[in-house]
Design goal:
By secondary structure, the protein is of the alpha/beta class. Helices cover 45% and strands 16% of the residues. It has two domains: 158 residues, 3-Layer(aba) Sandwich (Rossmann fold); 192 residues, Rossmann fold (3-Layer(aba) Sandwich). The protein has a six-stranded parallel beta sheet, with helices on both faces. Helix 5 packs across helix 11.
Length: 359
């Protein structure tokens, strides 16, 4: 197969790495010719590829380009791991919503086939085009790129990882961490949120004019709560550097709080996979997508006392914590190993080519 994956995001973004870069690497190992084109301006030899995959386009129309490629007999695939129709007005992505929704809607209708990361996204695509050819290929990890953490912490480490838009999610559980820090002696780590110190981000949020974005107000609330707590902030790094940062954080327990929203339900369980890859046990909100893949024992309703209770169990009971970690690592390794999922990608692209072979 000869495939060109076209992505307009930055190379260090997780979406590009997980849905394009590592997939292309594995498909090339399987004997195919797959090239990833990002924001560089290198001219493409269009005759070198039979399938063009478009990912995450926001602004502008691709109608003319896609029509030209179709006229050449090329197969067009739209690939997405987000539901832009689900962005609400408080979400940071709202500033690109008009472009993102327009782009997503056009690509759904222009593409010969669609690939998505979750069943929820397939459902959303079919809402827009009921006869669309949609395939679910889950996110997966190349476990050779992740090293197990050292463990053996003198004090238990509990942590959270996410971008600034997840300030709202962290705010939901920070009071539980605060309460438990008064009962137990553990270290609390926050990975990401921003590449700046929190004091600088707080100042930025105070001066930010577009206060309608919920994360801005929620980060200010979060920062004010953290001021009275003990924590370590590890600033945002590129996704390639992130793997090692996660290992070095050496977390015993990884938090995955997530508000239940239309946009959130379109996400995958990538954080769960990443924690398992380095040997950190996860506890996640009892919402889609986590309810689809994680055990009931590892899920918690988004209530303060529920988070306190579930975390207390993990803190107090080392045997239970290790048992859940072994179970999570086994599930992720069995079901989300890129070496296996690459074969799924191969099968899907072969089927797309067969179903859309140009006469």
């Amino acid at each position: 197969m000869r495939i060109c994956m076209v992505n307009n995001t930055k190379k260090e973004q997780p979406s590009y790495v997980i849905r394009n870069k590592v997939v292309a690497e594995k498909l090339n190992e399987l004997g195919h010719s797959v090239y990833c084109k990002t924001e560089d301006t290198t001219p493409l030899d269009l005759d070198a590829y039979d399938v063009f995959v478009f990912n995450r386009f926001y602004e502008g129309s691709l109608g003319l380009e896609i029509s030209a490629l179709k006229a050449m007999g090329k197969i067009i695939v739209y690939e997405t791991d987000d539901n832009y129709f689900g962005i609400d007005q408080t979400h940071p992505f709202h500033k690109i919503k008009d472009y993102a929704v327009l782009s997503q809607n056009k690509l759904i209708h222009l593409a010969d086939a669609i690939t998505v990361s979750t069943p929820e996204l397939k459902f959303k695509a079919l809402e827009r085009k009921s006869d669309a050819e949609v395939y679910v290929v889950p996110n997966a990890l190349d476990f050779t790129q992740y090293r197990k953490r050292k463990g053996q912490n003198k004090k238990l480490r509990i942590g959270f990882q996410g971008s600034n838009i997840h300030s709202t999610d962290l705010l939901m559980v920070v009071d539980a961490i605060d309460q438990l820090q008064k009962e137990f002696d553990f270290d609390f780590y926050i990975l990401g949120i921003d590449d700046k110190p929190f004091s600088e981000l707080y100042k930025f949020c105070q001066e930010y004019k577009e206060q309608q974005y919920q994360w801005v107000g929620d980060f200010k609330k979060l920062y004010e709560k953290l001021e009275t707590m003990k924590y370590t902030h590890m600033p945002t790094v590129s996704y390639d550097e992130y793997r090692e940062m996660l290992r070095n954080a050496n977390l015993d327990i990884g938090l995955i709080p997530l508000h239940d929203s239309e946009f959130g339900r379109g996400k995958s369980c990538l954080k769960y996979y990443e924690y398992a890859a380095v040997g950190t046990v996860s506890i996640a909100s009892k919402v889609i997508p986590y309810t689809e893949e994680m055990d009931e024992q590892d899920l918690v309703k988004n209530r303060h006392h529920k988070w306190v209770g579930k975390l207390r169990k993990l803190i107090e009971d080392e045997e239970f914590r290790n048992e859940r970690l072994r179970a999570q690592m086994l599930w992720v390794k069995t079901n989300r190993d890129l070496n296996k999922i690459a074969k799924h990608w191969e099968m899907v692209f072969e089927l797309i080519i067969k179903n859309n072979k140009k006469s």
